[in-house]
Specification:
The protein has 15 helices and 23 strands. By secondary structure, the chain is an alpha/beta fold. α7 (230-243) links the parallel β12 and β13. The structure holds xanthosine-5'-monophosphate.
Amino acid sequence: MTKAANHETIIVLDFGAQYVQLIVRRVREQHVYSEIRPADTPVEELVAEQPKGIILSGGPSSVYAEGAPRIDPKIFEAGIPILGICYGHQLMAHLLGGEVAPGSQREYGHTSVEVIDPDLLLEGVVSPCQTWMSHGDLVQQVPPGFTNLATSKNTPVAAMADTNRHLYGVQFHPEVQHTPCGPQILHNFLYGACGCTGSWRPAAFIEETVAELRAIIGHDRVLCGISGGVDSAVVASLLDLAVGDQLTAMFIDHGLLRQNEAEQVIATFGPRLGDRFVAINASQQFLQRLQGVTDPEQKRKIIGEAFIRTFEAEAEMLGEFRYIAHGTLYPDIIESGGGATATIKTHHNVGGLPADMKWENLEPLRQLFKDEVRQIAAELGLPEEIVKRQPFPGPGLAVRIIGEVTTERLDLVRAADTILHDELQAAGLTDQIAQSYVAFADLRSVGVMGDERTYAHPVIIRAVTTSDYMTVDWARLPAEVLVRIASRIVNEVGGVNRVLYDITSKPPATIEWE
Ligand code: XMP
């Protein structure tokens, strides 16, 4: 059973756009369920899914390029409302007899668009409107039956419509923030053209997924690893609702977690799951294996292997399981090229534990984005610290300690990290920052404290803003907040005499130091 079969769904056909996930998010934000399909999905398959509408994404190609992605023009006769964006707009024009001109130069960035005729698509859009363009080719002449709705300095057809057939196109990107009228345009398409009612709510997902999990699992047993992050916490909670006693949730504390994190996980799941929750403290084993290791990739390898060994050994003692549940999200699925498979049960593994494990995989969150998972977590009544928890690397603080990982360094990083987070919270900045942490560097510098010379370690503060974690900017923290953080860390955390603030974006740096 697919989600698309349950909901009124908008299918986004992916022509290789950088923004394809963003289109899905924007549609879901308007309470209409949406999923991505590859551009070459046969028309019959698309029609069989009975979508309320189809969006043709942008893409890097020119409709004239050899091998450029195409769609079967039969799709335009299927009676399904279609909105083409950028390349999708050009492709629609090209296939339906309009004229697409190879652009003499790329148009990129903020572009003012003049509305000629609002028709249905641009209803409520104030002219001129700011839009975001990024294209080489452009539509010069609309296809027969279409009306030109808008124009810009360099783009004769910035938007077009054949309202009788509910076919629409926009040259700009309504899904990006730089197009303030974008939500209105998408709303007009979804509600005006496609007749959606807006019934999709992440909370509705809980009920449906619980029923679906129950049907799949039957009387078998399922094992769920808990990391302390929001994704696995939601998976465990859904399984608890679905199959109750058949669930065992396992938390392995590798000793590389943040301050109080292990205690928090145990306090959250212990009372909820009782003896179906197993917490293993494997800190000593992990630390032993990491002794003397300084290379980041070697650390990752050691931790990954130790994790799997511990997991398997502990699971062995708990009896027979048929399923193992993962907190895989939609971006992971898309990035691994599996966007079109919509079932929540898979037999492949997208990260986490290796695919050759003897259990079958369950990935109930595989259609969701992180912010949707957070909404569901709140709905499930999980504590705020878990609902809002920042992403945290699997190898934990081991990749935030540059050099050998020791108990003393772990304590030092935890203490400094706690100060950072307390101060960001006190300054009301937490919600603006996607990820923030303190890293330890295995080097020493001279300082002076009181009248004494010190020769101690620096710590590095990293705080970044991002919506997708693929590209990030460093957070412009107010100087007075930075001063307070630095002063508290140097005064309160032994062994630190200098605080550095990392002002590198990604790329060229990454979020983590290792
Ligand atoms: P980078 O450092 O590549 O991080 O910019 C991007 C995001 O991924 C997280 N991260 C990891 N997560 N295992 C994980 O599970 C890892 O080895 C790992 N390394 C980085 C990082 O915290 C950020 O959210």
